[in-house]
Each structure stands twice: as structure tokens, then as C-alpha cells.
Amino acid sequence: MLSQFLVQHFIKDYNDVEDEKVRNNYGFLGSIVGMVINSILFIVKLIIGMITSSISVTADAFNNLSDAASSLITLLGFKLAAKPADKEHPFGHGRIEYLSGLIVSFMVMLVGFEFVKSSYARITNPVAVKFQIIPFILILFSIVTKVWLSKFNNYMGKKINSSALQASSFDALSDVTTSSCVALSLILSKWTRFPVDGYIGILVSLFIMYSGFTLIKDTLNPILGESPDEELVDKITNGVLSYKYITGVHDLVIHNYGPGKFMASIHAEVPQDMSIVKIHEIIDRAEKELSSKLNIILVIHMDPINTNDEEVTTAKKELEKIIEDYPMIKSLHDFRIVGEGDTKNLIFDIVIDYSQAITKEFRNNIKDELNERIKKIHPNYNVVITMDRDFI
């Protein structure tokens, strides 16, 4: 309820999340709320750590300070990512949002590493921890606050599909665990002189480092080029197929230039006996309409296919029956027969699941087997096979 209240009162046109300005305002609000809350928690926990002489509380305090800095970097990331395209960056600056998330992740790792050292020093040189009820209650309050902040960032991140805000949500949730460990160390300090504070401090620090590592992995994926979102793939594929005369699609490639900034190319199969002017008009209209509807840059390549030749139709059905025996072959396309007389070229592309067809030798064996099986049916066919990989 509070999350929706903040969104409705601070973001104009909050339902129009496809609008870049609205999306950026979500990012700004999430970052500012994170900065304010984490700064307050840092001050409170630092004071508690000094009062109780607890290294685990102090470590948790500086973890909150790093979270505040993370929110600031996320804010700057949204600000810079919103810069329009220019001569040097024709697809805009959207990937800066991913880079800001990466910086945040390394900061989290650094904080965890530093407090591993501090906690180890506390084990080797123990200092008595003073349990006091008011600081303990404040720690419990910080746990409740972090639970809400995690839900808030998750709500905002899902609303605008932001990996940076969803990473902040995960980070806040991990802080709930660390703060709970800190609260446990304060309770245990009442009954033992064992340096439990230092050991729990190490656990907290290791958890912080693990969180940082997870965030690094998540923010690196879109930079390195992860598989596109299945929903977007389906929208593009079904969208192109919805146009008249387009009978099949393949070779879809989607490039990510930042959240909500995509360029895609796809091959569309069209009848070869149609007027090239007419089919070009259809393809051109599909590019413009789908680009606008899906908020992407879409390029469609035409692949003419023979749909009325009985020889081609029969040979294709025979090939489809053969490849049923090869689970690593996901699909075939661009099937055609070229030539005249007794000797003809049977040409087609197959899409291979590279997770199964691992080695080059294995893939070549598949081609040889297909060639051999086709030759048994049509000895005069010269088989030309091109192996594609699926980029989705």
C-alpha cells in the first residue's frame, strides 16, 4: 500500500511505464527512497555499534552506507542512461544502467571483504559486547524497514523491468538476513563471553560478499549478451506471422542496448511468385507497425520460398520426417530445390541446439548422416546443408 501511495503521489502518469520519462521517474523515486532509508539506518546502526562495542552491528551499519551509495549510483545511472542518442552512441546510453548496477555490485563485495578482516580481528582480540534493550529494538526496526524496502524495490523493478532496482531489492532482502544475525549476536552476548560477535560478523560479511557476487553475475549478463526475454521473442515472432503472405519466420536476433531499448532482425518466408513490390509493402508496413507497437527497432529480411511446386513440397515432407530422429535439430528453413534435369541441388538450413551438438565433429556427422539418408531416397540430389544456431 505504501509503495503504491508513493508512486501515485510522486510519479505523474505512473501507469504509462512504456514512456521513457515515466520509467526514469520510477528509477529516480526508487533510488531516492533507498538513499534516505539506508542513510538513516547507517547513522542509527553506527551509533548502536559504538554504544554496544559490536563489530557485527558496525559492519551492518557500513553495509547500509554502501547501500546508500548504491542508490546514489543507481540514480546517476538512470540519469545518464536517459541521455538521448548522439553521433557516438546512435542507440542511446541505456547500457549505463547496467554499468551502474555493476559498480554497485563491486562496492557490495568490497564492503564484505573489509569486514571479514575486521571480524577476524575481533575474534583474535575479543571485546565485550554490551546488550541494551533500546539498541536491540532499533535493530529489529531496521529489519522491518529493510523488508519493506525490498518489497518496494521489487515492485518498482517489476513495474519498469529494471534489473538495477530488482538487484537493489535482492540486496535489501539479504540485509534482512545480516541484520537478523546481528540481532542474534546481541542476544547471545548476554549469556556468553565467547566472541560470538566476531564469528557472526564473519558470517554477515561472507553473506554480503555472496550478495555482491550474485549481483555482479546478474548485471554482467545483459552486458555480455544474455538470451532475450521469451515474451518479447513471442511478440515479435507472432507479430510478424500475423501479416498476410508471411508463412514462416527464422533467424531472429535481438540486441539489447539497455532496458527497453532493443534492435531485432528476423527473416520472413514469403511466396516466391508474388510481386516483389507488393510483398515489400507488406514487409515495410510490418517493420513500422511492430517497431512502434513493441517499442523496438525491427528489421525484416525477405526469404522467398516455393509453395506451389509438388516436388519441393514432397521433398520437404520427406526431410521433415527424417529430422524427427535428430532431437538436436530444432527446425529447418529456406528449403529449396535448384537446377534442372537429373541433377539438382537440394538446399536448406537447419537450426541446431548447440547445447546438445557440442563439437564440430558431432555437427559434421549430423550433416553426413542427413546427406546419406536423403541420397537413399533421391540419388540425383546434391545436398547442401547450412547449420544455424538459435540466438533466442
From TrEMBL:
It is found in: Membrane. Residues 228-304 form the Cation efflux protein cytoplasmic domain. Residues 32-221 form the Cation efflux protein transmembrane domain. It comes from the Bacteria. The chain crosses the membrane at residues 26-48, 96-116, 128-149, 198-216. One of its GO terms (molecular function) is monoatomic cation transmembrane transporter activity. It is a multi-pass membrane protein. InterPro entries: Cation_efflux (IPR002524), Cation_efflux_CTD (IPR027470), Cation_efflux_CTD_sf (IPR036837), Cation_efflux_TM (IPR058533), Cation_efflux_TMD_sf (IPR027469), CDF_Transporter (IPR050291). The keyword Membrane applies. The keyword rRNA-binding does not apply. Signal peptide: none annotated. GO terms for cellular component: membrane. Keywords: Membrane, Transmembrane, Transmembrane helix, Transport. Pfam families: Cation_efflux, ZT_dimer. Coiled coil: none annotated. Belongs to the cation diffusion facilitator (CDF) transporter (TC 2.A.4) family. PANTHER family: MITOCHONDRIAL METAL TRANSPORTER 1-RELATED. NCBIfam families: CDF (TIGR01297). This is Ferrous-iron efflux pump FieF. It comes from Clostridium liquoris. The gene is fieF.
